[in-house]
Amino acid sequence: MSTTEQPKSKFAEFLASKKIDARRVRYASEALEKLQLEDRQIRWARKHKKAEASKAEGGEKKKARSGRPVTDRAMTAALSGKAISGPQKTRILRAVNHLLTQKKQEPVALNLLF
């Protein structure tokens, strides 16, 4: 997005006001959503029905990461104000909040972005 171009959506205006590059949101999402060893273990346990045994013992149930980062297509749609799915909005929010935390700023809610 060039400097002469006006922001087209609420999300684009937010990124411009916080001085966050859209490419950084995408790369932060890749790092956050990447499957880790613990995520693979959770999926393996669910597949092999070990989750019921640990739940009976009082173990807390933890949700694995999706493994799906924000795509270029979703970022383009969000910046231009087009409709995107709920999970994509959540991934974008998670990445933006991560970047804001790095800048020592407060995380935001979903309604401020979309």
- Spell out the helices and strands N to C: HHHHHHH
Low-confidence stretches: none
Average of the residue pLDDT scores: 86
Beta-strand residue percentage: under 5%
Instruction: Indicate how many domains the architecture comprises.
Output: 1
Structure, described:
It is a single chain. It is elongated, with a radius of gyration of 17 Å. The chain is mostly helical. The mean pLDDT is 86. 61% of the residues lie in helices and 0% in strands. The chain has one domain. It has helices at 10-18, 22-33, 37-47, 50-56, 72-80, 86-102, 110-113.
Summarize the entry for a quick read.
With 114 residues, this protein is mainly α. The protein has helices at 10-18, 22-33, 37-47, 50-56, 72-80, 86-102, 110-113.
Strand and helix map with partners:
Layout: H1 10-18, H2 22-33, H3 37-47, H4 50-56, H5 72-80, H6 86-102, H7 110-113
List keywords for this structure.
mainly alpha, 114 residues, single chain, elongated
